[in-house]
Structures are given as C-alpha cells and as structure tokens.
C-alpha cells in the first residue's frame, strides 16, 4: 500500500524558524528576514490601530489651520551652504544658495555639503559675548566663629551685613571692612538676611524657625514672624510692596505682611526643602527653588503656582534675578547645573556649561557679570547674556583651615556692581573687585589679605 505523500518540510522549517526568531532573536540570520510585503502589511496594521483616532484634527483646531501652499518640485530644491555675508547684522541669517538639485531628499549629496551646513548652523547662532575685565580678591575679613551663610548690602552702599553659624549678625563697613555692630538674638545659624530699601529695617531668618525684624535705629528686634514648622533657609523682600517672603525646611514659602506680622499666603506645593526664594516687581513676583529639583513661579495675588520648571535633575539651591533684564537663573548640582530662564512664562533659555559641582550661590549685576560659587570652593564668572565663562577661580581657605572648608555659601554684588562679597566655610568674608577698579594698585598675595577684627 502506497504511503501518503508527506508535506514539504521547507515551509514548516521556515515558519518554525521565524517563530523561534521572534522569541529568541539574539543572532538574526540573513536567510530568516521577514518578507517585505508582510513587513509593510504589519506596519500598516499597527499604524492604523494606534493612530486611527488621530488622523484628522478636531473641528476647533482644523478651523484654525491656514491654507497650505503648493509643494516645491523636487528638481528645484536647493542646498543651503555657507557663503559670504552681506553685512554684520544679516550675516547670521543670509547664506549663499547652491542650485545643485538633491537626488535623495533624506540624505546630503556629500560629506562636504554636510560639514558646510553644520558650520552654518553653528555660526548663525553665535553671539559675541561682552568683554568683562577679570576679578581679583582684594580683602578677606575675619570675625565670625562659624560658617558664613548669608550676606546683604544696604541700599545706600555704605555697609553690609553677614549672618553665620555663630548665631550673630555682623554689620561691616563696606569701604574699610571694619566691624561696626554685632546683633545677637538668634539661637541657631542665621541663614538669610535682607535690608529694606524703604524702611530702616533689617530682616533675618535662621535654623531656629524664627524670622525677625530689626530696627536699625534702635538696633533691636521689633517684630517676630511665627509660622514656619522648621528651619528658615531664605527670605526676600518685595521691591514695591510691604511684603516679606520666607522659605525653609517645611517645604513651603510663606508671605508675610511686614507691618502687621500677619501671614498672607502659604505657598505650598514643593515636596522638599525650599532652599531659595526671590521676589521681583512684575509677574512672576515670587520664584522658589527647592531640594525636590524644581523651580516654581508663583502668582502672589492668588497664592498659587503658575509654572513648575522640572529641567533640573538635582536639588535647586540658588536663584538669581537680573536687576534690569526680565530673566533669572537657577543653580543645582551636577553637569549643566546652572540654567537661565525668561520671565514671565519661565521659558528655558540656555545652560551655563562647565561648573560640575554643587552650586550654593548665584549673583548677577546690571553689567551682565554672573557669578556662581560652589561647595568645593570653585568660583566662576560668566557673561550673563551668552553664558560664556570668562574667569574661573578657586576659593583660598583661611590659613589653618582644612581644604574641605573652601566652600562658598553666599554672595552678592554691591549696589554699584563693582564689588563682590562672598561668605564661606572658612568663616571669612571675601571682597573682590574688577581689575579695572584696582588698576595701577599692586595687589598683595592672598595670604597677605587677612584683616583680623
């Protein structure tokens, strides 16, 4: 009896191999590739299943679409290459046009064309940075017995105040660096200071949960602002309203009526310590940076968040608002850790590259000099408009200090923008000048700069 004809084994083998390949596709074989027709069908089915509900815009959006013009014929497509510019103003936008047609629209004709296009792409966005003279350390003031955590310059530019881990607020003469006054009252580290431009008041906050108002005519505390549940790390005065904003470890920022001591708003939304807070005249009037790696822009009237910026990867420890430009900067830890933002919507502008450290403090003056100080003692000066670094320095610890005490915790420019005051872990205050200010003056070495008070 003749046996039944067996089916050919080759199709069965291929089908089994394809199934095995789909499961264990670690070593793909050229002979086991999918049929081109099957691959197209599979892709079309997948596109249909996933995007069938989005092939057409809703009627409301469709009505907003303008008319689409005729497509450009493929033969008349042109390659943009680098070429001579007409003048300085239009050099970034105008390039010579090469009339060579493109044979394949998805690829460039040659590596030369690609390099020319990339060169043009870079040059069209290059902005020449403003020249800034270098800065030099000219005075080191010693007098605190703990880390210097806060500094503020008074509006008249005659003196400045510092707060430190020794729980004392010290008032220094800006010109000579001499100690004028010591204010005691806090029972823990003083973390924030601000001098009112419209009142004879100095405001301070600290890790003792207290926010205090000092009358500078009587040199005593006249108001306490109670409400924070933990240490208060930062404060800021509104430039036009009699409003004080404080922030701290209870993951909130609080808005106070300066006169009545009443708490107007609790700006809640952060999930970790709010490390810095800044106020400005126009919206957003309050900006906060937190250890939860976010920056929030607040509506002061409603007491609610307007925008949350989540670009930072690590905790945001410092903020700086430009005195004249409608923008601000934020600093955190890690690479690309300093970012510039545009107000009022908080649009990201660019990164300040290079300082791979934990940034504790930022400061910017009206001339566009942007300063950042880090936990490892690295100091950087940038052109604020372009993000170009024009000077880097290392903090010099006080003689007898450890190398680990080179960290910088606070900084501010004076009212003229020609002096930079910083405080650090070596318990000293350092004053730096632009080189043009001290031109012709023989500057001493850092070890000869110590002024003992």
TrEMBL record:
Q: Where in the cell is it found?
A: Nucleus
Query: What InterPro entries does the record tag this protein with?
Result: Prp46/PLRG1-like, WD40/YVTN_repeat-like_dom_sf, WD40_PAC1, WD40_repeat_CS, WD40_repeat_dom_sf, WD40_rpt
Which GO terms fall under biological process for this protein?
mRNA splicing, via spliceosome
Q: How does it assemble?
A: Associated with the spliceosome.
Q: Which organism is it from?
A: Mycena alexandri
Q: Which UniProt keywords apply?
A: mRNA processing, mRNA splicing, Nucleus, Repeat, Spliceosome, WD repeat
Residue ranges for the region (Disordered) are 64-89
Its ancestry begins with: Eukaryota, Fungi, Dikarya, Basidiomycota, Agaricomycotina
The entry assigns this protein to a family as follows: Belongs to the WD repeat PRL1/PRL2 family.
PROSITE patterns from the xrefs?
WD_REPEATS_1, WD_REPEATS_2, WD_REPEATS_REGION
> Which PANTHER family does this one have?
PLEIOTROPIC REGULATOR 1, WD40 REPEAT PROTEINPRL1/PRL2-RELATED
Summary of the function given for this chain in its UniProt record: Involved in pre-mRNA splicing and required for cell cycle progression at G2/M.
**Pfam families, sorted:** WD40 (PF00400)
Q: Where are the WD repeats?
A: 141-182, 183-224, 225-266, 267-308, 352-392
Gene Ontology CC annotation, any one: Prp19 complex
Q: What is this protein called?
A: Pre-mRNA-splicing factor PRP46
């Amino acid at each position: 009896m003749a046996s039944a004809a067996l089916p050919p084994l080759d199709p069965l083998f291929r089908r089994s191999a394809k199934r095995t390949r789909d499961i264990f596709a670690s070593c793909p074989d050229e002979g086991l590739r999918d049929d081109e027709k099957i691959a197209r069908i599979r892709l079309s089915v997948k596109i249909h299943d996933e995007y069938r509900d989005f092939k057409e815009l809703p009627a409301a959006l469709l009505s907003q679409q303008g008319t689409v013009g005729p497509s450009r014929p493929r033969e008349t497509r042109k390659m943009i290459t680098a070429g001579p510019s007409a003048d300085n103003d239009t050099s970034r936008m105008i390039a010579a046009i090469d009339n060579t047609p493109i044979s394949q629209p998805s690829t460039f004709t040659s590596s030369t064309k690609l390099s020319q296009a990339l060169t043009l792409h870079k040059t069209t966005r290059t902005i020449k940075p403003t020249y800034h003279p270098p800065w030099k350390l000219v005075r080191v003031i010693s007098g605190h017995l703990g880390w210097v955590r806060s500094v503020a310059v008074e509006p008249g530019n005659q003196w400045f105040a510092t707060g430190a881990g020794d729980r004392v607020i010290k008032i220094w003469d800006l010109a000579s660096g001499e100690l004028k006054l010591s204010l005691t009252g806090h029972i823990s580290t003083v973390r924030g200071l601000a001098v009112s431009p419209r009142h004879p008041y100095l405001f301070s906050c600290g890790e003792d949960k207290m926010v205090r108002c000092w009358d500078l005519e009587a040199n005593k505390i006249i108001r306490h602002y109670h409400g924070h549940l933990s240490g208060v790390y930062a404060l800021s005065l509104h430039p036009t309203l009699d409003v004080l904003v404080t922030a701290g470890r209870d993951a909130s920022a609080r808005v106070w009526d300066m006169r009545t001591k009443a708490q107007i708003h609790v700006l809640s939304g952060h999930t970790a310590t709010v490390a810095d807070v800044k106020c400005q005249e126009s919206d957003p009037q309050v900006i906060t940076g937190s250890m939860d790696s976010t920056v929030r822009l607040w509506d002061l009237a409603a007491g609610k968040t307007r925008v949350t910026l989540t670009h930072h990867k690590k905790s945001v420890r410092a903020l700086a608002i430009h005195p004249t430009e409608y923008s601000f900067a934020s600093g955190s830890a890690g690479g690309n850790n300093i970012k510039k933002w545009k107000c009022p919507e908080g649009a990201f502008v660019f990164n300040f590259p290079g300082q791979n450290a934990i940034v504790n403090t930022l400061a910017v003056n009206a001339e566009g000099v942007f300063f950042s100080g880090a936990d490892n003692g690295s100091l950087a000066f940038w052109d604020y408009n372009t993000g170009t670094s024009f000077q880097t320095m290392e903090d010099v610890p006080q003689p007898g200090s450890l190398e680990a005490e080179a960290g910088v915790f606070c900084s501010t420019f004076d009212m003229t923008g020609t002096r930079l005051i910083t405080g650090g872990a070596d318990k000293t205050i350092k004053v730096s000048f632009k080189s043009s200010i001290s031109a012709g003056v023989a500057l001493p070495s850092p070890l000869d700069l110590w002024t003992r008070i």
